[in-house]
Amino acid sequence: MSYKGGSRYLTRELVEAIGGMIVRGDAPAGESLPIEAELSKQYDASRTVVREAIKMLTAKGLVGSRPRRGTYVEPESEWNLFDPDVLRWTLQRRFSIDLLREFLIARRAIEPAAAREAASHRDGEAIAEIARRLDDMREAATGARDPLEADIAFHIAVLEASGNRFFRQFSFVVDTALRFSIRLTNTAKGVRAASVDDHGAIYEAIARGDGDGAALAVERMLDEALQLLDMSAASEAAS
Question: What pTM value is reported for the model?
Answer without folding.
Answer: 0.81
